[in-house]
Design goal:
- By secondary structure, chain A is mainly β.
- Chain A contains no helices and eleven strands.
- Chain A has strands spanning 5-7, 10-13, 19-24, 31-38, 42-50, 53-57, 64-68, 74-78, 87-94, 103-104, 108-112.
- The N and C termini of chain A lie far apart (31 Å).
- The A-B interface holds A 2, 4, 33, 42-45, 48, 55-56, 58, 90, 92, 97-107 and B 32, 34, 36, 41-46, 49, 89, 93, 95-104.
């Protein structure tokens, strides 16, 4: 158990809908990262927050957004969902803004039908 | 574009043997290289990392080798055990925040 929690574990929704994925980092970790893992794209970095502020952006679509709250939990919002958004979404945390030692949560499996 | 990739998508070894998982990278400006292990149904788990100014780093039963001349990274697992069966990802990190993952190698340990 990495100490990072994600909810929900599974999510099934229809195209065009909007969902919110939630992540709680390990106790004491200030930085949160979001990743998408799909069969054809592998593990792709989406976005990083550090202590409430956006720190880095990866391959995140404009339909996706995220935020980190004062209690350091983070939410990833996915809107206008398409079939291709079906994937595992992982959250990871690290103690500071340095990205090399990240602890991953168990992931949220999103299925868009 | 520059990318991180893996030579082999699958690797099968006998229990007790040593395993070597390889990774090629193309960005010479990367600061860190990291190996992750992902078991079925779980998130990636940090194994070991290496700075770009090093060529070898050892952990518990694992060794990472970095050859900057040929832009090659490898993970060696000594005395491979059934619990080592998983997908292994290499990742490169540059500008401290931009992490790129390879496609992954599935390691299967035969009893």
């Amino acid at each position: 158990d990495s100490g990072v929690t994600q909810t929900p574990k599974h999510l099934i929704t229809a195209t065009g809908q909007r969902v919110t994925l939630r992540c709680s980092p390990r106790s004491g970790d200030l930085s949160v990262y979001w990743y998408q893992q799909s069969l054809d794209q592998g593990l792709q970095f989406l976005i990083q927050y550090y202590n409430g502020e956006e720190r880095a952006k990866g391959n995140i679509l404009e339909r996706f957004s995220a935020q980190q709250f004062p209690d350091l939990h983070s939410e990833l919002n996915l809107s206008s969902l398409e079939l291709g958004d079906s994937a595992l979404y992982f959250c990871a945390s690290s103690v500071n803004g340095a990205s090399y030692e990240q602890y991953f949560g168990p992931g949220t499996r999103l299925t868009v039908t | 574009g520059e990318s991180v990739g893996l030579h082999l998508p699958t690797l099968s070894v006998q229990e007790g043997d040593n395993s070597i998982i390889n990774c090629a990278y193309s960005n010479s400006a990367s600061d860190y290289f990291i190996w992750y292990k992902q078991e079925s149904g779980k998130g990636p788990q940090f194994i070991i990392d290496i700075r770009s100014n090093m060529d070898k780093r050892q952990g518990q039963r694992v060794t990472v080798l970095l050859n900057k001349t040929v832009k090659h990274l490898s993970l060696q697992i000594a005395a491979t055990q059934p619990g080592d069966s998983a997908v292994y990802f290499c990742a490169e990190l540059y500008n401290n925040n931009d992490m790129r993952f390879g496609a992954g190698t599935r390691l299967t340990v035969k009893p």
